[in-house]
Amino acid sequence: MMNSMSNIEYVKGLIDQSFKVLETDVIDQYQVSFVFKQADVLQVLVTLKNAGWKQMSYLSAIDWPDEAKFEMVYILMNWERAIHVQIRTKIDRNDPVMPSIITVYPGAKYYERECHEFFGVKFPGNPDYEKQLILEMWDDIPPLRKDFDPQAYSDRKFTKREYNQDYKILSEDNKLKEKREARKQRAQSLKGGQKA
Amino acid sequence: MKSTKFTPARKLTKEEIDRKWWEIGDFFRRNSLWMLMYCTGCCAIELPPAMTSAYDMERLGMGPMATPRQADILLISGYLSVKSLRRVIYTYEQMSEPKYVVGLGSCPINGGIYHDSHAVINQLDQYIPVDTYVSGCMPNTESVMNGFVDLMEQIKNKTANGWVKYKENNEWYKSNQKAALGEVIIHDEFHE
After folding, report:
1. Which of A114, A140, A159 to probe by mutation at the B interface, max B CB count within 10 Å?
2. What is the pTM of this model?
3. Residues of chain B predicted below pLDDT 70
4. What is the architecture, at CATH level 2, of domain A4-155?
């Protein structure tokens, strides 16, 4: 069994020799992250799968509304070399299209459907990506986008319980303020059962 | 002179006989309640101590039941997402009458910490009638047990009539369900 640092070196060497990496980030001894151009992603996944990263642990998106980008993240796991590899790429936010990876990792089918539902990313190549999976009869913009307001949606959609206001807000100009302050100070001075 | 002959008892009306039978039925019913636990949220963690030797629900005559058709109580433990509310309504309508609903925790009451979530409903009693609420986030096991005892009291006092309300105000409940859910029964690839 190889130690974990040489595993990092191994995956770095493997990636660097055949792809142009925009950014590399060694997160810890078991995790490394690479940023690629969108066009390279599928080829990188094929390479990594052949090198032993057989398990696709997760696929999701991150919303960066300021840059008008979605960042796609693919997390792969190798059971021989204990390394999680994150493949990241940024895609356009206004027309988010990412080719499906189900030809490489068939299990990604449901992750892609989830990602489409929560972020609105389209996955051509996946026959079912538009079918509903988790949200049922959703009628708004995808809910995990940063510009979605869950409070407003909840207020619009679900009835709220109404309460009578049976308490009083003690304002600053209340004439009982002095009394309150005095009581507070007395409580402070009696702290621990001892008079100050 | 009044006759000393035995006077036959007044003939009871059908309503009175029905009421008496209901009282007898309620006596047995409240002493053997079967619960269908819909463990949607974190309050479900209060049920193991309530069921096992620590608080021992069995001594109140309560027990878990596997199917809705044989259960008396539908126990909603914790927050309800829109998706599970559909299943809850479906389950509730399958239960045979009389049926009671107990809501655990603050989420079925007013949304609790999920009051601003896009996926969680705020008030359970808008969609199905609730007989007993146990408040708290989460309620401790004493209050859960207390809630069950309260429900038994309510059955005794004939105030646990949520299922009657559901029948009488069915249109109101249905319109609320429609407003929040769109459609109660979903036809998709998993339910065909």
Report:
1. A159
2. 0.80
3. 1-2, 191-192
4. 2-Layer Sandwich (3.30)
